[in-house]
Amino acid sequence: MVWLGGLITLVSIVLWVYAFFDALTTPAQEARNLPKILWLVVIALFVPVGWILWFFLGRPRKTASVPGDAPTPTQAVSADDLDPSDFSEPSGSPHPLGPDDDPEFLRRLNRRIDPED
Prior knowledge:
- By secondary structure, this protein is an all-alpha fold.
- About 50% of the residues lie in helices and about 0% in strands.
- The protein has 5 helices and no strands.
- The chain has helices at about 1-25, 35-45, 45-60, 85-90, 105-115.
- Helix 1 (about 1-25) runs antiparallel to helix 2 (about 35-45) and helix 1 crosses helix 3.
């Protein structure tokens, strides 16, 4: 029975630390119901319930995306959403994309590697 009390205490401490750092790193304009500084005080002072209140009342909500909508810059794009044709389109830049695409760079590199050639 002692191990159960220790496990509950450990889980409570871990969730308290996670909630505190989550509230600390959340942008101030995204905190709900209270200002960010007050959420930090609530989490720090009311240890048994502060983190529960943060998770249910203060944490920013994740907005559900509607199918067919373009992803916003804050939403992560997965590899499934990428179109291979996007990578094969020319960039419109007169310069090569990388040094290994520049023939003059490759010639100079070959001269540096084998100057007798």
